[in-house]
Amino acid sequence: MAAPSPAPLPDRTALLRGVRRLVVKVGSGVLSRGSFTLDVGTIRALAAQITASRSGGRQVALVSSGAIVAGVGRLDLKERPRSIPLKQAAAAIGQGALIWTYEEAFAAHGVKVAQVLLTGEDLRDRSRYLNARNTLFTLLTLGVLPIINENDTVAVEEIKFGDNDRLSALVASLVDADLLVILTDTDGLFTADPRRSPKARLIPLVRGNEAEGASWAGAPATATGVGGMASKVEAARLAGASGIPTLIANGTAPDTLSRLLAGEALGTLFLPDVERLAGRKRWLALASRPKGIIRVDEGAKRALVERGKSLLPSGVQGTLKPFGVGDVVSLVGPDRAEFARGLVNYTAEEVERIKGVKSSDIERTLGYRHSDEVIHRDNLVILNGGER
Q1: Do 141 and 182 share a domain, yes or no?
Q2: Which H or E run includes 238?
Q3: Are residues 101 and 247 in the same domain?
Q4: Residue 119 burial (CB count, 10 A)
Q5: Less crowded by CB within 10 Å, the N or C end of the chain?
Q6: What is the per-residue pLDDT for 41?
Q7: Handedness of CA 82, 86, 92, 97 (dihedral sign)
Q8: Is the distance from CB of 121 to CB of 112 less than 8 angstroms?
């Protein structure tokens, strides 16, 4: 497929000048150099670069893979575990080694670190999301470097993020980051597989959703990696949905992070095409798990997407699955595709009773009225393209 059409490259130096808080994600392939043991030299070099990047008051949060790889090495396994129990055991053994290696590396620069382990449920639940956010902000304010990883020791399929690329995008949104940097073992996003095609070329800039269907995003390059480039492109898309740019670059090359933050044109820069969402709407769009579904007609969908209106009962056609007041629900149109999410003001049973009626008739129908809206615009976010 054809690569994205050429576009003027932005001034990276100017873009990075305004970065006051960033999230750095480093993958297992970088930390282990493709082996089943942590490469201490790589971690020490990363610590030096992150320390330098914090100069001038800039805040950094680190999302780090590597626990399972470290555990595999200590267990003398020949390959990455495939079963959940064995992954959990390897993570339990390896997480201590990983954080100890980081603590030693950063101590040489006088930087204190904190271990933060998260599961998907920690961010899908609104109160736990806010607790995690408050903890991270407190650590950053204290000058402590949060080192964040998925809690593989307790994670199961239902609550896994899938990989730390997605987690890094969620963390970037969680802490209101100005930039997400993903350090991997390839140079960035290419037009084809650079390991196989001599014609493959690096794509330096992606705007909005240009990467979709126009580039190569394959499996991990090493046996120790998890997500591959596809998950990194998805992470960039998720971060972009919050208005956060992403840089994907080769973390195995010397001083990559320092060179990126100095404005050097390394890797692939993903620029969002949407405005930065407010905090609650970021959570709704990226981290929440809907409890139920509300079907709306085409007129209501247009009013929500094109005119920024609230969802009124007159535009509701029906519900799927039970939900309560204050729950997150998905909104689907006549095509049954999800286009929005919001915090609902009525239960599923109540919505079924008032569907199709005017707001002025809610009290006559129910005998009471919580709100004129089924979902207020302030508690609703449009997906796939952000606010309009």
Answers
A1: yes
A2: helix 228-241
A3: yes
A4: 20
A5: N
A6: 95
A7: negative
A8: no
Give the pLDDT confidence score for residue 8 in this predicted structure.
63
Task: Let me know if residue 372 belongs to a domain.
Answer: yes
Same domain as 237, residue 305 = no
Same domain, 273 and 310: no
Query: Is the confidence at residue 106, as pLDDT, over 80?
Result: yes
> What distance in Å separates the CA atoms of residue 17 and residue 263, rounded to the nearest whole number?
9
**What's the pLDDT score for residue 194?**
78
Give buried/exposed letters for 256-275 (b at 16+ CB in 10 A, else e): bbebbbeeeebbbbbbbebe
* 217 assigned to some structural domain: yes
Looking from the CA of 226 toward its CB, the CA atoms found within 13 Å total 23
Contact 145, 52 (CB under 8 A): no
Neighbours of 59 (CB within 10 A): 22
Quote the tokens at residue 68.
Answer: 């399972």
* In the block, residue with structure tokens 């959570």: 283
Q: Is residue 340 part of a domain?
A: yes
Q: What type of residue is 311?
A: L
Contact 330, 294 (CB under 8 A): yes
Instruction: State the first-to-last Cα distance of the chain, in angstroms, to the nearest integer.
Output: 30
Q: pLDDT tens digit string along 336-383?
A: 999 999 899 999 999 999 999 999 999 999 999 989 999 998 888 888
Q: What range defines the domain where residue 157 resides?
A: 12-279
In this structure, is the dihedral angle defined by the CA atoms of residues 226, 173, 26 and 194, taken in order, positive or negative?
positive
Q: Supply the DSSP string of 67-121, one letter for each residue.
A: HHHHHHHHHT-SS---SHHHHHHHHHHHHHHHHHHHHHHHHTTT--EEEEEE-HH
Q: Which of 279, 301, 335 is the last residue of a domain?
A: 279
Rounded CA-CA distance 356/311 in Å is 11
| Domain CATH number, residue 362 | 2.30.130.10
